[in-house]
Amino acid sequence: MGTVDPRRQGRDAYERLAWREAYEGLSAADRQAPLMADDLDRLARAAYLIGATDVATGTWERAHHAFLDRGEVAGAVRCAFWIGLTLLLRGEHARGGGWLTRAQHILEDAALCCVERGYLRVPAALRALNGGDAEAAKRSFVEITEIADLFDDTDLRALGSLGRGQSLMAQGRAAQGVELLDETMVAVTTGEVSPITAGIVYCAVILACRGIYDLRRVQEWTEALSRWCATQQDLQPYRGQCLVHRSEIMQLRGDWADAMDEVCRACEHLSTSHGDPALGMALYQRAELLRLRGEFSQAERYYREAGGRGHSAQPGLALLRLAQGRLDDAAAAIRRTLVETEGLEERPGVLVGSVEIELAAGGVEDAQQAVDELDRIAAGFESPYLRAVAAYARGSVLLAAGAPEAACTALRRAWTAWHGNEAPYEAARVRVELARAYRQVGDRDTAEMELEAAQRVFAELGAAPALEQVRELRGTAGRAAPRSPEGLTPREIEVLRLIATGASNRVIADRLVISDKTVARHVSNIFTKLGVSSRAAATAYAYEHDLV
Questions:
Q1: According to the model, what pLDDT value does residue 41 have?
Q2: What is the DSSP letter of 191?
Q3: What is the pTM of this model?
Q4: DSSP string across 374-441
Q5: Of 22, 115, 227, 335, which has the fewest CB atoms closer than 10 Å, so is most exposed?
Q6: Rounded to whole angstroms, how far apart are CA atoms 344 and 332?
Q7: Which PANTHER family does the record match to this protein (predicted)?
Q8: Would you say the C-alpha torsion 292, 294, 296, 302 has a positive or negative sign?
Q9: Alpha helix ranges (H) inside 294-363
Q10: Are 183 and 146 in contact, with CB atoms under 8 Å apart?
Q11: Can you give the pLDDT at residue 65?
């Protein structure tokens, strides 16, 4: 039998996109005899794609020197580019910038006209884009694309087209930008672009579409990214961000249990990556789901962890404070965040939180200003999702301002949009506001039907705070407040109502902002006073005595 050649095995696995196998085969070959420059580049790419970024940068460094020893300047510069970009993405700006400067000097000394000149322009173009100079960024990306066309380099062409699309969107020309991103994705989805570049483009396009609230494209490209990830063995980068976006889509569609499963997987996956910024996004998404389910202490933990990872904890943390009854803290946090948030991608979410909190604080004029700005942004983005958000916010403000008829018109428009987009939680929230409006115009029957429909949705989703809000509203709909039976205190009735929703002691503690021990004491007192021995019996009692 012939001896197995690990180098050949590694190369074959690399062509099959089996990154772990390629890494192990080429590493074994490297231990037998130092690899040549081209195989070192393959080993570095395989290491990067299984998440071993330290190994990847070290191996690219070896490849860089090996190319220089062979007099292949272009190959050496390409390796230096990937080292620099990888380090920049990890937040190591000094080292990353050093490698990029080194590459630039090597090219200048060699006076070589090659496609790598285009690659070295990418970081500067990104700095201009992130620094707010979208016009300068667009010019740079146009030049990068021209260099790619000159040398017929599909990877550089994809990066240039991606940057041009992002620059157009940053200039408020969302429709043109999205068209360019769609065109860029054609080369990616047909396999014309190498895996590292393809992953970068996939994630950037999804984030760009998410930033303009184009949820149809977010869903479409997330599904494509998920399929792409599944074709590559042991792929580490990109998969975590894909799981976060999948969780966001599931949440919108009302699949909250699956959404939580996905984001937990994302957190676990991303925790193994050094400095991956997507981890902050995953932690924030986890906190959002927990807040909506009423698990407040756990939600706060993940908001804080997200903040520690560089992702803003707002507006979620301010909305958590509102749900906890800490209105002053919520208002202070959202007002500060509104002043500090300038980007068009982040601002709509903060404005929505501002409307809700300002209305709770009685600041109708401030809420009105936030809605006006939200309307302007929604008009510029041409986003059905954002238009629905803005219609709901406007309806809420009109209702608070004493214009229930006008509020009904705006809210009905919002409900139609959410219902058409299969977003049950958002549609149910609109129903609650519609019920308030119908009551103000004297249509109590329709108001009760809206509340019944909303209550069913919130119960199915496990949206405990929203469910309690509906129950409180229905309790004031022409019914006297229930008497305290069996000597239960008002707090014990609150606990009993939550027991009847199926809430655990921990959830009750979160919801009422009390300790687990205090909840346990209340539960014990309730059982004693009612003469029951189980939560099921207490729940039955609550329903029989109209306490729920």
A1: 97
A2: T
A3: 0.74
A4: HHHHHHHHT-HHHHHHHHHHHHHHHHHTT-HHHHHHHHHHHHHHHHHTT-HHHHHHHHHHHHHHHHHT
A5: 227
A6: 22
A7: TWO-COMPONENT RESPONSE REGULATOR
A8: negative
A9: 296-308, 316-323, 327-340, 347-360
A10: no
A11: 97
Angle at 224 between CA 196 and CA 15, to 5 degrees: 40
Residue 460 to residues 28, 247, 423, 467: CA-CA distances in angstroms? Answer: 54, 18, 13, 10
Query: For residues 54 and 143, what is the distance between their CA atoms, to the nearest angstrom?
Result: 32
Residues with Cβ < 8 Å from 118, sequence gap 6 or more? Answer: 143, 144, 147, 148, 151, 153, 156, 160
pLDDT value, residue 515: 73
Q: Per-residue pLDDT for 369 more than 50?
A: yes
Q: Tens of pLDDT along 421-431?
A: 789 999 999 99
What are the residues facing 18 on neighbouring strands?
A: 233
Q: Is 274 helix (H, G, I), strand (E, B) or coil?
A: coil
DSSP structure class, residue 35: P
Strand partners, 233: 18
Q: What is the dihedral sign for C-alpha 334, 336, 339, 344?
A: negative
Q: What is the C-alpha to C-alpha distance for residues 316 and 492, in angstroms, rounded to an integer? A: 29
Region 236-312: CATH code: 1.25.40
Name the percent of the chain lying above pLDDT 70. 97
Q: What is the pLDDT of residues 165-193, one digit of tens each?
A: 999 988 878 889 999 999 999 999 999 99
HSE-up of 200 (CA within 13 Å, CB side)? Answer: 19
pLDDT at 167: 95
Residue 88 and residue 443: Cα distance in Å, rounded?
60
Nearest-CA neighbor of 118 among 92, 143, 135, 137?
Answer: 143
- State the pLDDT at residue 486: 63
pLDDT value at position 517? 81
Residue whose pair of structure tokens reads 């062509």 in the numeric block:
15
Question: What pLDDT, in 10s, does the model give residues 194-210?
Answer: 999 999 999 899 988 88
Q: How far is 177 from 183, CA to CA, in rounded Å?
A: 10
For 482-548, CATH gives 1.10.10.10
Contact criterion met (CB below 8 Å) for 218 and 385 = no
> Where in the chain are the domains?
236-312, 314-382, 409-479, 482-548
Distance CA 482, CA 142 (A): 69
Joined tokens for residue 382: 């041409």
CB 338 within 8 A of CB 371: no
> What was the pLDDT predicted at 118?
96
Q: Tokens 């017929």 identify what position? A: 152
